[in-house]
Amino acid sequence: MIVVTSDHVEGKRVVKTLGMVKGNTIRAKHIGKDIVAGLRNIVGGEIKEYTEMMAESREQAISRMMEDAEKIGANGVINVRFSTSMVMGGAAELLAYGTAVKLE
Q: Is the entire prediction scored with pTM above 0.70?
């Protein structure tokens, strides 16, 4: 499966557009890591607990989007984008979406 953020794939031709596909996940860190992240927020610097959480979330959302694309017979997803939103304090949704296509 080819997944790109552009509207084309170099050396390939889109022969059929199958529609929008998406994958999402909602994640929250446990209270212990929230406390550590809160302390780091006070003193400054990267909040590694949340960096790791968002990296894992992106991978899971991409994987779910690819599964969605495979179900409808796609071998590529173009124009991939990400969106995030806070669901509640300490929990965020990450959504990956794009256009499923047949590439030749």
A: yes
